[in-house]
Amino acid sequence: MRYRPISPEVLTAELTDRVAALAPGRRIAVAIDGADHATSAAGLADSLAGPLRVRGRETLRVSARGFLRPASLRFEHGKRDPDARYTDWLDLGGLRREVLEPLGDGGTGEVLPALWDPSRDRATRLPRVPVPEGGVVLVDGEFLQGAGLAFDFVVHLWLSLPALRRRIPDDDAWALPAYERYEAEVDPSALADVVIRVDDPRHPAVYEP
Q1: How many domains does the chain have?
Q2: Largest CA distance in the chain
Q3: Is residue 209 part of a domain?
């Protein structure tokens, strides 16, 4: 693989250009896909919101963490089961129903920014937010590819396995087999529109085939 080193500032500018040019006049969903606590998926998504608004694309930020399933379902096999982390934690149906389907043709355009508060383990009861024509919804999270979620554009933050082992917090290291399974079964780099190597987040690099 060939990677082009890039500064975080130039990366934000390049991604802004790519996203702003997508489907003018239509609502779109953009995923920033990366391992929780080991990549800066949320930070990258945040950095795109302002520049996209300046470019005339109204933007709404959504985190997949707002669509985790209730604790009774996530932790049915224990709090540190990597297979459950991979297959059972994210409420795919809720994310599809409340975020992605409203953006599609014939959708209402009204998006629910979060469905579940995992820290309080209860529904958020947030109001829906209208996304205007031409608006962009930026969704950050892990394991967002390979599950049939209809994103219009996907950025995948990739780490080598040694870097992932270094970067993941000690209390989250039990999830490593889930990330290895995602890499082996889904090959997210092959599916994404843009792949960014983030072994060192201060010095990202963009994959160029």
Answers
A1: 1
A2: 46
A3: no
Say if 119 falls within a structural domain.
Answer: yes
**Rounded-to-integer distance, Cα 176 and Cα 13, Å:** 32
Tell me whether residue 116 is in a domain.
Answer: yes
Q: Which two tokens stand for residue 92?
A: 């795919």
Tens digits of residue pLDDT in 24-70: 999 999 999 999 989 999 999 999 999 999 999 999 999 999 999 99
The pLDDT assigned to 142 comes to: 98
Q: How many residues does the chain have?
A: 209
Domain presence at residue 207: no
The rounded distance, in Å, linking the Cα atoms of 156 and 166 is 19
Q: Model-level pTM greater than 0.90?
A: yes
Nearest Cα to Cα of residue 27 among 19, 38, 35: 19
The boundaries of the domain holding residue 141 are 3-199
